[in-house]
Amino acid sequence: MPSVHKRVLIFVEPHPLRNSFTEFLDVGKFMAGLLSRMDSTEIEWRLFSNEIVLAELRKNSDYVEKLITPTEDESAFISSSLSEWTDDEIGRRTLLVQGEGELSEFYRKTLERIRGEYQFDLILLWSENGAVRRFAAALDLPVLHLELGPTRSPFPETLYIDCRGTNGSASFLSIDLDTYPSEKVLPAATWLGLSAAADEEKPSVLELQATSPVLPWETGQPYVVVALQLADDLNTICHSEFTTPKEFLQFLLPRLIGLGFKVVVKGHPGAPVRPINLVYEIEALNYAREFDDDVAVLERTLPATQFIPILSGAVAVCSINSSVSFEALLLGVPGLVYGTAVYDIGYHLKKASQEFLDTGKWTLDPERVNRLVTVLCRHILLPKNSESLSRSVRGIIQGTTAGLTPVEYTNLLIASSSQGYSIIDEEIGKTDTKLKLITLPKEVGILDSTYMGHVDQIKGESLPTGYRLLIRGWVARRGNGHSPIRLVAVSDAKGEILGYADLFDRPDVRKVHPSINYPVGFGATALLSSAEIRGTRLLFITEGEVVTWNLEEGGIAPSSVFPLPKKGRLGNASPTAEPYPIAPPRSLVSEINKVLRKLNASRMKRG
Q1: pLDDT along the chain (607 residues), means of 10
Q2: Which residues sit opposite 545 in a β-bridge?
Q3: Which of 212, 242, 454, 482 has the fewest Cβ atoms nearer than 10 Å?
Q4: Are residues 142 and 233 in the same domain?
Q5: Can you give the CATH number for the domain in which 214 is found?
Q6: Where are the alpha helices (DSSP H) in 177-244?
Q7: Listed residue (349, 373, 367, 473) closest to 424, CA to CA
Q8: In what order do the strands lie in the sheet with 545-552?
């Protein structure tokens, strides 16, 4: 993407919220620091907020010339707006988020005044502000919204950036997941990584997942976890039908108990900080206790070492749209949502959640969950403290224009922020603890004396045009004297090649096998004429040979190794060489096909 000069206005919410002028101070520092790491010839920026936030930012001498100060009249209005955080004040803030009311009009005029002094062509803000969106829409200016991703410590912490809004307003929610390549989809558990804690003595999420939960019931009784949310959270107010946590429990508890489940209810750890939330949550918890032995109420501040085992052992985890439900998906537990959640691309989770209340069963295809998690963790959720964050956000700022469709913006995200496994890598890098290979479905298998690897999944799908076969796993050569696998292919029983896949990084494998410093993961697809896979072969292609493996029910069996003629070789392959992006040279295809035809002919003679 060619670089262009962008002039950015960082709009740090100046309006007082929750009895404070500094609710957005930390994110203001974060955004200023983020853009300061970018090349000023490409990304120029200024920052506007209230006087108290600006006074803190002025303590960094590098920011002084980049701060835009409110006028005397603007400061007077902002100062006079500080009010007790009551239902009425929450309602005024909601109107501001929706771009309505007197507050919205005031901040729209303030932006007009600022643009007269600084001709910005993009606005960057945290969360949402309807006045910003109204102003930008009138001038056809793009807006980018930053917000925390749906993971909290000890899960890897993330954030996301969107051109239309945050939470249930995000643009990528409406994209079609089915357009994402099947071969790039990975099991949801792959993205767990290690604990975000720097203390090596603290257990990882994977270790906590294997710990038995402590509950007031006999082992084996099915239970559901319900996580409460704050009444003044925009996720609750703007993206759900519930106004209080008690309303949510009144909707949920009778249904869950009627299905035969015990229920664990956990309050929100942030409720005591805001008195209005504490009042509403106490009402909800008192209602939950009316169900006696069918409901257990957990401490709000229950540590992760105790809560994650409870999540992992649940039949399902329910919330309006909390990050807890997304974390449940990573743990392999159904994450149910009853509002609009930022991680529910295509709204499949919400539909399956409603069905769960009717049947007590989770109907969402595991492949759909894996696809959802892969798209989010690979392209949308950016590691909060990653060195690549500034580069990713720079690419998004450079490529964002007004009026992008959800598909266009998602393509920009994929181009600018394809994270792959960097979330896992970053968390692993914070400790010396080695990642055990327990994210794979089975133990590592030894294929023969020179090859090792594992087939994680062989899956078939009937299509109008035939039968699609998907094979996932990893493969590597033993020892340092062998050239690595460069391509993976699938052939039919006749020896014709049906499809290729390049290889991608598998940090989970590298942590167990430190000598593997090159891509070993694969996801190969092939379209067969029928569901009969007998004779179909999986091919591993190196610099100078093809290794064939016969597909059988439930796995693969080794076949033979065939050398490639020099004219058909891949060339000067090396562990760090880039794989062919689509398919190998036609000469190599021809040589591989010749080998396979000979193999097929010899077997027919023996048969």
Answers
A1: 81 95 95 92 95 96 95 97 93 94 96 97 96 96 96 85 94 91 75 48 68 79 95 92 96 96 94 88 95 92 89 94 95 94 96 96 91 89 77 90 91 71 40 26 37 73 75 73 70 68 74 74 77 72 68 49 39 29 41 51 45
A2: 563
A3: 212
A4: no
A5: 3.40.50
A6: 205-209, 234-238
A7: 373
A8: 497-501, 487-491, 537-541, 545-552, 555-563
